[in-house]
Amino acid sequence: MSARVLIQPVTSNHFTLTDSPDRLGWLVPTDPAQPRERLLDQYQTQGYLWLKGILDPQRVLDFRRRYFEAFAHVGLLEAGTDPADGIYSGGGKGSVQKILAEIVQWASYEAFCLAPEIWQFYEKLLGGPVYLHKRKLIRATTPDDSCTGAHYDLTYLRAGTDRVCTSWIPIGDIPVEMGGLVYLEGSDALGRQLEAEFSAKNSHLPPEERISAYNKNMSETGWLTKDLPALANRLNSRWLLADYETGDMVVHSPYMIHASTTNTRMRMRLSTDIRYQLVRDAIDPRWTTNWSPDDKL
Fold it and tell me: Which of 64, 104, 206, 244 is 20 to 30 A removed from 178 (C-alpha atoms)?
């Protein structure tokens, strides 16, 4: 690692990634204004594009404020602080799921995810009219939240095309210490291999079970593992970190293995992950309705 010195351990589900510095690296940033051919080459080679400054930072921060203002009355935010800062009080999580179920239906959230910079980029990258999946995820994480284990997204999207792309958008600055996503270097090829193996194992299951991320051939969560350091060691690979900034967006393939890390600060990490694909490709019907706490995905 050479981008900067980390002043504290990076952890995920109580496993410490920084115990093995040779298993860590940094994402490579990309200028979104590059020609399509160069973007496609980077995407296919790396399995991701970290697009710097593709979004209007002020619009991102305006939505961050609107999001946290929705929680101002439930005790989630530290009293007397600016909602836009998202300072965690240490409690008040009892109403989070109910409010989230409302937020994913906001017209303002839909508009945020349909920003012209996003859909126009995807039309450029994919080469045709695109579709935004209705099911969208938005999360505000605190130091006491568990982390998402290592996985690839197609596990949860098997009833549609494998040409779907995920956008992970930091809503505000997310330095490494605030627990952003980490990506397993070169893992797009591994994800494809794993999915081919799962497809063979699942081939004799009933159709509904065949596409499920939780069938008898999968783990309880659909994750590959919680132990990120062990996975990097076993595969002789590295977890790639980043200091994400307001206005950035990461695009990753449905086979790229990734996970989240621990937010060590009381400032909540707000991010959303949404999915785009070509309209003409098969769409997973489970992703054509809004997220809900009981949608079993």
Answer: 104
Q: Is 275 within 8 Å of 126 (Cβ atoms)? A: no
- Dihedral angle, C-alpha 88, 8, 243, 28, nearest 10 °: -150
The helix/strand/coil state of 157 is coil
- Token pair of 157 as six digits: 């999207």
Fold of domain 22-282: Jelly Rolls (2.60.120)
- The candidate with the shortest Cα–Cα distance to 249, out of 170, 142, 140, 132, is 170
- What is the mean pLDDT of each successive set of 10 residues along the chain, which is 297 residues long? 77 96 97 98 98 98 98 96 97 95 98 98 98 98 97 98 98 97 98 97 96 95 98 98 98 98 98 98 98 93
Which of 213, 203, 113 is CA-nearest to residue 154? 213
Residue extents of the structural domains in the chain: 22-282
